[in-house]
Amino acid sequence: MGTKGTPGAKSSGGAKSGHGISRRGLLIGAVVTAAGTAVLAREQLEHAWWRLPGVDKPRKPGEVDFARAQWISASAANWRKADRPDDYTIDRVVIHVTQGSYRSAVKVFQDPGHGAAAHYVVRKDGHVTQMIRELDVAFHAGNRSYNERSVGIEHEGFVDRPQDFTAAMYGASARLTAAICGRYGIPVDRKHIIGHVEVPGTDHTDPGKHWDWDRYLKLVRAAGKR
Q1: What is the spatial distance between Cα 181 and Cα 90, in angstroms, rounded to a whole number?
Q2: Residues 150-178: pLDDT tens digits?
């Protein structure tokens, strides 16, 4: 059947087909679809170009994400390059305790054979050291999904020594966590700021029963308002 029921009649360039869609409409739709696909492909390429062999995303040596932090690089074997939050959404902060001194934590994070490191280490006196950029994935949580979605903060001390969790440490760590939460829109609550012990599949117990979560979250909220 042709147009208007006339056998063998041909549709003109602007006439509707038997399905009620014009050839022009089909062409326009195809162009729009192609354009949308091209935009998506370009955006994916922009995020992925630096993963090509021999290409690295530009980094500035010694650059930190938290202005008050000192930079000491962890071994490249203890983290992997990423482009967060573009490739992985950051929606968690994981609180750790080193089970040792600040110096020992920095040393093992620089050891390629250790296989783990956190983004930050907070000392008892409140000094903050950054060892891995936040855009990169640190091997700190013992769970790949949580590593990809979180920032890890180590705290000098032992879980069974409440005296190790000083006021200076709480304050400095709270300011750091507030900055991270503000940067990525992370809610300040116990669902999004968690202990290492709460990571699925972990065998760790930190930060332990002596870590004062109520005090810590109050400090984080207060720091976020400044």
Answers
A1: 9
A2: 999 999 999 999 999 999 999 999 999 99
